[in-house]
From TrEMBL, chain A:
Residues 78-303 form the Radical SAM core domain. It holds the Pfam family Radical_SAM. SUPFAM superfamilies: Radical SAM enzymes (SSF102114). Gene3D superfamilies: Aldolase class I. Keywords: Iron, Iron-sulfur, Metal-binding, S-adenosyl-L-methionine. Its cofactor is [4Fe-4S] cluster. It comes from Mesorhizobium dulcispinae. This is His-Xaa-Ser system radical SAM maturase HxsB. The keyword DNA-binding does not apply.
Amino acid sequence: MNVWPLKFREMSDGSVLFSDDAGGFFKSSHSFLDRYAADSLTPVDGTFLREGNHGFDREFDLPWTSFAYRWARRQARPTRMNYVILVPTLRCNLTCGYCQVSRAPENASGFDWSAETLAGVLSFLGGLEGPDIKIEFQGGEPLLRVDLLEAVQDFCRGKFSRPQFVVCTNLQVLDERAWAFLDADDTFISTSLDGDRATHERQRTHGSEVTDAFFRNLEAAVSRYPEGKISALPTVDVASPPDFDALLDNYERYGIRSVYLRPINHQGFARKVRQGDNVLARWNRLHSEFINLLIARNHRTGRFMEEYYFSQCLKRVLRFDADNHVDIRNPNFFASDYVVIDHDGRFYPTDEARMLSRIGRIDLSIGDVGTGIDREKVEVLNSGAFNHFDPDCIHCAYQPFCGTDVIDDVSRYGRIDARRTDTWFCGRQMSLFDKVFEVLYRKDEAARASLAAWLGLVGWDDSMAPTHP
Amino acid sequence: MHSPKAYPVTSRRRDCIINRTLPGHSIHQRPFKYALIVLVAARIIASGGDMTKLPDATDVDVVVEIPPQFQKYADAAMLRLQVLYPACRLASLGGGISVISSGGFAQDQFRKDVLHVVYREKIYAETLTMRQALVAAVTSR
């Protein structure tokens, strides 16, 4: 039998995790590692590897073909453009301390789409094929220009049979026209809720009246709309994290059961926020503690909440096609199925690329609505958009589940060929997948119950996380 | 079964390393076929790459022996180790990998890491054609 290459990682409990390129994994021991590396596998090892689909006899035999299928299903294929992030205005009515997108003052001029830009955006959308489109309105505060949002909404409803709209709003000021826009069944709300009231006020609203207005509008939206229409995420400052129990209570109170714990972003002006030393290590510890807290809380209350990105990584380990989140997509080709159009009509491959360009370090724009997407520039970015043969990733047990983040690397190191293991992206992903596998191999009822809930299963069975002595 | 062994290395050894002369046999009095010598300043390597030299660190020398069947991958492993541990100075010797490091340095862990890098290079080299055939079969039109 030929054994597909196994990558390995020593776990905190002293065991060794093995994975193959198609995402098959199991836990074993150092002695198995020695036997495997020295070509001295026992018959028992051979049986285990064969039954776990880690080997084959001949190219194109059934086990080989099966492995090739599983490998192929783990690769992200370029698909048609169906997700467009629009920034109709950079103006905003809040001044959050760590604003990531370089907002402009509410009364400033020159930061909204011109009539010409709007026409260019609609023309671009008109050239897209397929029945479905998802439009995400970003800002600034997009509801400052409901008229532009309505124009896009009307156009998309005429052009696509299944349009969907997400408004990323601070829910600070909502007039009748804004409520009417949000009322539509095809329209969803994404907002920021930084935990408990005190944290939200400290980080975002800076005053009790403004805070009151936000919570008033959030409560009105929650009572007005069905569960699932509103999503929220907190931005967490590692130097001053919120009380996580209070955060979860608050989210649950508003019917939001999925919390995407997000660190302060480095791409934009938020990089100036002082968070102290060893930010990555502190973030990873904080996140790990949050997952433990969630598992214990879920078990105690019987009401299951999740951390969004952790659930995505968990699904990525166990399923095909669980790569909607771009950080775990591989290859992660740019301007393939999604793109960003800024307030001036310029295209960007990601929102982070827009932020990074905004601070003047580099121009990552890839064309504009007048001239179209600059495919030559996209190809340059795409040259680093996969991890298969990265000299570090190729040996990493988490490679089949992980992705790349070229923009983050450029943002932090000014280059895309930094030693992978030294990057923020790798450090965060390693910690996340360490946690995923720690939870997968936990034997307690609390962990099993949360695993089942996060994966949408009736129950979790220990055999689903294989072990070889 | 391939647990790496550690041998003390004298100051003479360090001089040899610095001078890039590697008389490994005479120092160890055993017939090394291959060794990798690593000179390390003791440092804390934090996630994200921050490196801080340990205060009051004293240099300590370690040799990691490479089993014969892995020796042909030691050069590649050395290259990789130089990337992973930029504070190290490396040189090949005979039948093992030699590490010169400092107090506070997790020698056992480092020896294990060195051997794992050798394992990885062997696995990579021996399965590369398998991977190439897989990618070619799946992506060819």
